[in-house]
Amino acid sequence: MKIIVTDEVADQGLALLKQDPRIEMDVRLGLKKEELLALIGDYEVIITRSGTTVDKDLLDAAKNLKMVARAGVGIDNVDVDYASSKGVIVVNAPFGNTNSAAEHTMALLMAACRNVTVANASLKAGEWKRAPFTGVELKGKTAGVIGLGKVGGRVATRLKAFECDVLACDPYIAVKRAHDLGVKLVSHDEIYKNCDIITVHTPLTDETKGMIGGRELAMMKDGVIVMNVARGGIIDEPALLDAMNSGKIAIAGVDVWSEEPPNTEILKALIAHPKVTVTPHLGANTAEAQINVAVDVSKEILNYLDEKPLENAVNIPRFDMALMDQMRPFLNLVNVMADFGIQLLDGHPEKITFSYAGAIAHYDCSPLTVCGLAALLGRVVEQDVNMVNASLIAEQMGIVVEETKTTSADAFSNLITLIAEGDGKRRTIAGALFEGAPRIVRLRDYAMDFTPEEHMLLLHYADRPGMIGKIGTIMGKHEINIGSMNLGRSEKKGEAMVILSVDSAVPQAVIEEIKQATEATFIRAIHMASVKTSP
Q1: Which PROSITE patterns does the UniProt record give (predicted)?
Q2: Which domains does the chain have, with CATH numbers?
């Protein structure tokens, strides 16, 4: 695997990759965009920080790219949607600099409230002034935390340690998490109206860009303290400067900017404002954080090479890692079922339904659905399909994908059913695990019980004496060995279904001969790419 590193990344992380003989790594820092576009086609992984923009141009030029590894939390310099459409995995390091960002928030807040930077400069200049640097305490203040994720949660805990009353706003956080942190969940407007200190800890998205603007600033208390150690652009910077100039905001602390380095007149004026304490995007800039994020993304690359689950892929549905050992056999089962089921359908599917019954229905099954969808679509489209782009490809093809769950599974502790519909036909396949191995237990309305093999033959015919003998005779004549047979029928002398496992692929001429001899209404040779026979 060829990897290019385009930004400064800690050697402790890269060392994990350098010692793997499967990896060839080039560190190319300071490349101009045109230079990187000319080189990127040779690489399968790019490791970046915030200095490299992974946009459409880069992704189009990266013909062999499998993964973008962002050594940090933020991914606003990566076009994740376009990467997903290309089947490129995007991973980040969401935990590596969590503590660093939380501590920097508190450092910036305390420095701003106690005038540390200006008092330091004054004393170093030979002055002895105290009155101009009278500060404010945190104790007894109401603090509002917008975004109660990994960093915001830590900031809330530290604010409580300073004896603040803490309110929080985050539509994606459960009430229980807020309760565990000892904070109260409220609306955005309640934060703006009631808090003495407001600190932002959300990612920069279309939804959060400019989230705090003139309207929101006007709602705030006079003399409010505002902090942004998240991403530049979440707080509208011209509106923030106006609020500073009017005295609406008494103190601000800013670590991040909509343009880095900041060159606009608005940003320069904001940085120069005497009531704004600033730093040049240092939230994740500790020795520990740099090592942590480098190690985290390097481990993800090794996981990919070893075909292990990725813990921090931002564009792949994933299980709680604590459940991974339990769910891995089901990933194999749904992959096998999809590989089998799509071969029974002529043409492209129009609707695909994944149903989960039994104990498995208590869990998030979306990774199973996407895994099965990727296996299924891989049979019907020419481009590479994986868990990253499967849903996008299905949407582009106009395929409806549904997922249903029920905790009742009749005779099975867990049962997965796949229904593929298209061209007026409907194919149903159900599977279960037996001692961890996948087995097919139902095809259409027939109860079956067989283990999928690499080469199989399925046919429907009118049930009458001698049919199995005819099939066996034809197979023997052509020296095709039958490994196992599974028979199902709707009623005596009704329609029968037989599944044969064979040691080698059945030629089309033999299929036609069997079809004529049995007057089969349906016959299909199955080749299971997901199942290989033992050597």
Answers
A1: ACT (PS51671), D_2_HYDROXYACID_DH_1 (PS00065), D_2_HYDROXYACID_DH_2 (PS00670), D_2_HYDROXYACID_DH_3 (PS00671)
A2: 2-92+289-306 (3.40.50.720), 97-278 (3.40.50.720), 317-452 (3.30.1330.90), 454-526 (3.30.70.260)
